[in-house]
Amino acid sequence: MICKFQLLLVTLLIFPAALYSQSSSSDGTVSTPSMYSVKLNPMPVMTEFSGFRFGTLSIAQPEISSDWQMSDHVKNFHLQNTPNPSRVAFLGGLTLSTGLLINYQMRNAWWSGDRGPFHYREAFDYARNIDKLGHVYGGYLASFIFYRMTNWTGINESRSVWYGASLGLLFQLYVEVQDGFSKRWGFERWDAIGDLMGSALFVARYYFEPLQYFQMKFSYLPSEEIKRRDADAIENWIDDYKGHTYWVSFRAGQFAYDHFDAPSWVRFFNIAGGWSLGGRPQQRDHTEFYLGLDWNFEALPGNNWLLRRLWEGLDHIRFPAPAVRIRPDGVWYGIYI
Fold this sequence. Notes:
The chain has helices spanning 4-20, 72-75, 85-111, 130-152, 157-180, 189-207, 224-227, 252-260, 305-314, and strands spanning 23-24, 30-31, 46-48, 61-63, 214-220, 244-250, 269-278, 286-295, 321-327, 331-336. By secondary structure, it is of the alpha+beta class. It has one domain (4-55, 57-62, 70-336).
């Protein structure tokens, strides 16, 4: 099915998640952990870290020692995993109420009046499989949102990654199961695989630091078809795949800053590759590929926890920037939205 829930989830959850996603330790102090800061992974070695800067991706350089002893953070692991009951209750209530609201709206918009026995369906010809990218992006984004929520409750970062990915995947699969009871749609196994890939990618970025130089993003500009008012017009922007573009953004400036002593301002610039659906109404659709400039919001200044979480959330969207279409033909865009 098309990624209705995943994209609507951005609007309803990403900004509350950004607003409330700080973390607290057992002694009540507030810290701002990030997937891009040093992680406390237990290792059977004495480890010396070669200077981490906030917002950088410098990789730790371990030194092997025969005098290894269990570090304090391993001994006190249980102390780093004590959720705050009031925060758990708040986010649990927010998640439940938002989920019920989304479910109610989607049942009226997509699932009402066409319920039937559970069945499978594979629509490989739909939107030239651009919707599959939407499922990968949706699984990744949902995992991020639930990760930040669970981390804010007081659960340590490594466990929050797994909880976030699990909750994000369960949410996606719930949508797929509901589709399975819809006569119009059906449970699409490849959509579910896309959901799984998105959640798995989120976990992989945490444990494999080179992947942190890459980020999935999304941009949208209404197509000609959704602007039409006839019976064949697209009903809503979520189904408007000719207006969707899915991006993989490489933090080229951050990479240059980390490895080649480039000035700090270059960290703001990324290089992104985009994939979209093209074709005018009544014509055969085709895939389009883009190469363009992108912005790294994680590199923006500000040590305030609200700003850091806001920049982190906005970094999942590709904002307007120059780009060139490289398929099916070359077209330069001063600003591509």
